[in-house]
Amino acid sequence: MARTLIHAPTTARKGEVIEIRTLIAHPMETGYRAGADGRTLPRDIIRRFACRYNGEVVFSADLYPAISANPYFAFYVVADASGSLVFTWEGDNGFAQTESATITVS
Amino acid sequence: MSAAWMAPDRSRRAVLAAGLGAGLCVAWRPARALSDELTNALRGFTGGAPTREGKVNFDIAPLVENGNTVPITVTVDNPMTAANHVQAIAVFNEKNPQREVISCKLTPRMGRASLSTRIRLATTQQLVAVAKLSDGSYWTHTVDVVVTLAACIE
Lengths: 106, 154
Known about the structure:
The complex is a heterodimer. By secondary structure, chain A is mainly β. Chain A has one domain (4-29, 45-105): Immunoglobulins (Immunoglobulin-like). Chain A is 0% helix and 55% strand. Chain A has a five-stranded mixed sheet with strand order 2-8-7-4-5, with no helix packed on it. A three-stranded antiparallel sheet of chain A has the order 1-3-6, with no helix packed on it. In chain A, strand 4 and strand 5 form a beta hairpin. By secondary structure, chain B is α+β, with helices and mostly antiparallel strands. The longest helix of chain B has 26 residues, at 2-27. Chain B has helices at 2-27, 36-46, and strands spanning 51-53, 56-60, 63-66, 70-76, 86-93, 100-106, 114-119, 125-133, 138-149. Chain B is built from two helices and nine strands, in the order H-H-E-E-E-E-E-E-E-E-E. Chain B is globular and about 60 Å long. Chain A binds chain B through residues 17, 30, 32-33, 53, 56-69, 71-78, 80, and chain B through 68-70, 73, 93, 96-98, 100-107, 109-112, 114-121, 152, 154.
């Protein structure tokens, strides 16, 4: 399991636009670099990121090798109901990770 | 006495002014036209639909010291309502091994069309951010970036 950092408010007013920031520890090996033995290192990247709010995808992204190691995303979501924010990362070599945060909307 | 003394001084001022003017011309040079590489990449994203410059703001440092992590923010001037929202944002580069940088799908539930992330840049190059709106129009913002330490070399 890769380490993740998720910044999302735990409480919000209904209709408020909240900022969500996520970071995941991952080398994002591009597949273009040479290793110590001179041979090209195989690609190992996260290809897809998605954020679901109460089961519905609100934001998703396809990633390419040009994304830095330890991919970071900051985006906004409208807090319209209490519930869960679920973040998923999927990538090469069967990489898959899911993290969640709960939010209370008043 | 004073006339003979003033003449060379004036010409020196003229030379200095000309030099300053030339420097300003370089600094204010408008962004160069979209390269063929980027035009092709954009065509792949839009499916041949026309793109217009505007609405999108691609925020990136013009001078990058380390190409391994370059913070970028793409913001689109849009209310993000069900009737009028940004459906997708993509970023393309000119000189990395692959043209694509990121391609995202947005929904009206985001409330604000803004995305920040960190990217790699192999060398000094041109980048373009493109947004697809719900009315089917495409808007772009092109930036030129100077990279002093490149990614992907070591």
